[in-house]
Automatic annotation (TrEMBL):
InterPro entries listed in its UniProt record: DHS-like_NAD/FAD-binding_dom (IPR029035), NAD-dep_sirtuin_deacylases (IPR050134), Sirtuin (IPR003000), Sirtuin_cat_small_dom_sf (IPR026591), Sirtuin_class_III (IPR027546), Ssirtuin_cat_dom (IPR026590)
Sequence positions that bind NAD(+): 10-29, 89-92, 173-175, 215
Primary role: NAD-dependent lysine deacetylase and desuccinylase that specifically removes acetyl and succinyl groups on target proteins. Modulates the activities of several proteins which are inactive in their acylated form.
Co-factor remark: Binds 1 zinc ion per subunit.
Cofactor section: Zn(2+)
Active site (record annotation): H107
Name assigned to this protein: NAD-dependent protein deacylase
Length: 224
């Protein structure tokens, strides 16, 4: 059995499926910086504005199709004779829809809803409103099951274990700006793991190997 392959993906993996990245030239939504909308403070201040932002993202993600990069990663996970850990910062479900069996969504997922009062989770409807009562406790405190800036990412223990089980770390389509995800490459290097970047343009972070180009071309090429 070969060693694990730890694959961290960011918005660049889904860019060619038509889903905007965070730091694209505009990177704004309804004149709001994403960082100003994806926060608990924004939700407390104007919950319907935040719900509208995620309703738009959820609708866009549902209309998007997995691209060749998602498909190549799902194939790798199915065919590799070791474990392929697909750790994603993305909240879309394109890897799952490409056939990936296990995806670690460290920043949550658009397809899930959560109750801010009792923590109950359920499949999110396409359109969510904060007045929607929680199916478990009935409180009108519905929120997207998304990790906002200032909140603790999900599955951090599983991610640490996956890194320690891997002998290759690959970062795909991520600018390496947001922590703790941005620190995983350095953790890999400290563990003596070989690190590879696949990105439209090199992010500038230190990797043993860098491949530049669109994910839909360079990910399938790298996987084969
Ligand atoms: C936490 C869900 C504590 C929401 C997201 C000061 C210094 C350091 C850190 C901080 C600081 N102040 C605050 C912090 C912490 C903060 C942070 O890092 N802030 C940044 C802005 C400095 N982090 C947090 O708050 C995190 N929580 O720290 O808790 C803690 C931590 C650990 C343990 C205990 C406690 C929570 C952060 C999560 C926020 N939620 N997403 C939503 O989606 O709406 S973050 C969101 O932005 C994404 O999930 C992703 O993580 C990030 C965007 O990054 P990318 O995915 O890389 O996208 P980006 O647009 O930046 O880049 C696109 C890339 O794609 C580019 O490289 C481009 O070249 C490439 N590309 C484009 N097209 C293509 C392509 N590549 C290939 N092919 C293409 N076609």
């Amino acid at each position: 059995m070969s060693g694990g392959i730890f694959i961290l993906s960011g918005a660049g993996l889904s860019a060619e499926s038509g889903l905007k990245t965070f730091r694209a030239e505009d990177g704004l939504w309804e004149d709001h910086r994403v960082e100003d909308v994806a926060t608990p403070e924004a939700f407390a201040r104007d919950p319907e504005l935040v719900q509208r932002f995620y309703n738009m993202r959820r609708t866009q993600a549902a209309k998007a199709e997995p691209n060749a990069a998602h498909q190549a990663l799902a194939r790798l996970q199915a065919e590799y004779d070791g474990t392929v850990y697909l750790v994603t910062q993305n909240v879309d479900d394109l890897l799952e829809r490409a056939g990936a069996q296990k995806v670690i969504h460290m920043h949550g997922a658009l397809k899930d809803a959560m109750c801010a009062a009792c923590g109950h989770r359920w499949p999110a409807p396409m359109e969510m409103h904060v007045t929607d009562p929680c199916p478990a406790c009935g409180t009108a405190a519905t929120r997207p099951d998304i990790v906002w800036f200032g909140e603790i990412p999900y599955h951090m223990d599983a991610i640490q274990t996956a890194l320690e089980d891997s002998d290759l770390f690959v970062a795909i389509g991520t600018s390496g700006v947001v922590y703790p995800a941005a620190g995983f490459g350095q953790m890999a290097q400290q563990l003596g793991i070989r690190t590879v970047e696949l990105n439209l343009e090199a992010s500038g972070a230190r990797f043993d190997e860098v491949h530049e180009g669109p994910a839909s071309r360079i990910v399938p090429a790298w996987v084969t």
